[in-house]
């Protein structure tokens, strides 16, 4: 029987001979071209038979209605186009920071939608779910995370999402990580021999200058707890771009001894910088000169 142009039904074999007292299998392939219900009566003409053999074939055509959206660096939800590369920026963050973007898969169809992600292994990139199923008329949110632990440059890192019997989505990820560009006037300072401190005596000191050469403000916190023999005159401050801050360090040795300390400063609570301080406590030498030696 002639079929409608919106579907294709094929028979294998389409004709043949069945020996006496035997059966012959015929494969029927149904290939719908549109989303609708099909109902056909197929006729098989048998030579010398008065009437043909009939077979009723029913089927339903459907397609996957999928879409993918993503949140950008400014929080806007954008559509990802299937079948083509989509450049996707994760932004520029500080080392030990973390950026998370939502990838939203939508199923507007009438049946479950299966998906699977594929991406090269990367120590700083992670997806919260690599495969799953989205129910009809539902969304599934997958988190894409970039969490660098050192300075790095991510360029066109390709990840793909394949929908079973549906589209393939490709994202080319771009991102960068860096540490705040804060310079120090010195990394190590030696006070050398200094007299053991007594009340009212002069206190040896040195100035450590911090300069913010970055484009953003940097929150700086001193992680050093002042001690009897070493004091820093700052705890926390914010350093605007292009600005500098002088930090005075005082050495007050309390005994005859060698001193070694490390001053550590936190930058934006994510990375640290350090300087080393050393010095020595000494006692003044007093010599008594005889009167004769004075003459």
Shape: rod-shaped
Strand % is over 45%
Question: How confident overall, as mean pLDDT?
Answer: 90
Structural class: mainly beta
Helix fraction, binned, reads under 10%
Q: Uncertain segments of ≥5 residues (pLDDT<50)?
A: 1-5
Describe what is shown at a glance.
This protein is mainly beta and 295 residues long. The chain contains 1 helix and 23 strands. The protein has one helix at 291-294, and strands at residues 7-12, 27-32, 37-44, 53-60, 66-71, 77-80, 85-94, 99-107, 113-118, 125-127, 131-134, 138-146, 152-163, 168-178, 182-184, 188-195, 205-212, 218-222, 230-232, 236-239, 244-251, 258-267, 271-282.
Structure description:
It is built from one helix and 23 strands. By secondary structure, it is mainly β. The longest helix is centred in the C-terminal third of the chain and has 4 residues, at 291-294. It is rod-shaped, with a radius of gyration of 39 Å. The chain starts with 6 loop residues before the first strand and ends with a helix.
Layout of secondary structure:
Layout: E1 7-12, E2 27-32, E3 37-44, E4 53-60, E5 66-71, E6 77-80, E7 85-94, E8 99-107, E9 113-118, E10 125-127, E11 131-134, E12 138-146, E13 152-163, E14 168-178, E15 182-184, E16 188-195, E17 205-212, E18 218-222, E19 230-232, E20 236-239, E21 244-251, E22 258-267, E23 271-282, H1 291-294
Parallel strand pairs: 7-14, 16-23
Antiparallel strand pairs: 1-2, 3-4, 5-6, 5-8, 8-12, 9-11, 9-13, 10-12, 13-14, 15-17, 17-21, 18-20, 18-22, 19-21, 22-23
């Amino acid at each position: 029987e002639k079929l409608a142009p919106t579907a294709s039904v094929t028979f294998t074999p389409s004709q043949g001979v069945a020996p006496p007292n035997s059966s012959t299998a015929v494969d029927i392939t149904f290939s719908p071209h549109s989303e609708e219900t099909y109902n056909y009566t197929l006729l098989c003409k048998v030579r010398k038979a008065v009437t043909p053999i009939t077979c009723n074939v029913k089927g339903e055509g459907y397609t996957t209605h999928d879409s993918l959206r993503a949140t950008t660096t400014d929080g806007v939800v954008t559509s990802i186009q299937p079948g083509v590369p989509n450049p996707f920026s994760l932004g520029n963050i500080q080392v030990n920071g973390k950026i998370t973007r939502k990838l939203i898969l939508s199923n507007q169809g009438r049946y479950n939608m299966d998906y699977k992600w594929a991406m090269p292994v990367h120590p700083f990139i992670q997806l919260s779910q690599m495969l799953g199923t989205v129910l009809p008329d539902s969304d599934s949110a997958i988190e894409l995370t970039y969490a660098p632990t050192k300075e790095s440059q991510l360029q066109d890192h390709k990840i793909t999402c394949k929908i079973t019997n549906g589209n393939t989505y490709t994202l080319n990820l771009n991102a960068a990580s860096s540490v705040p560009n804060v310079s120090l006037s010195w990394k190590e300072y030696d006070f050398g021999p200094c007299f053991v401190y007594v009340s009212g005596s002069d206190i040896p000191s040195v100035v450590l200058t911090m300069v913010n050469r970055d484009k953003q403000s940097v929150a700086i916190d001193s992680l050093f707890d002042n001690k009897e023999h070493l004091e820093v005159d700052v705890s926390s401050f914010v350093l605007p771009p292009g600005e500098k801050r002088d930090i005075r360090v005082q050495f007050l040795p309390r005994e005859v001894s060698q001193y070694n300390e490390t001053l550590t400063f936190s930058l934006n609570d994510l990375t640290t910088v350090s300087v080393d301080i050393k010095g020595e406590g000494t006692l003044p030498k007093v010599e008594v000169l005889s009167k004769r030696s004075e003459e």
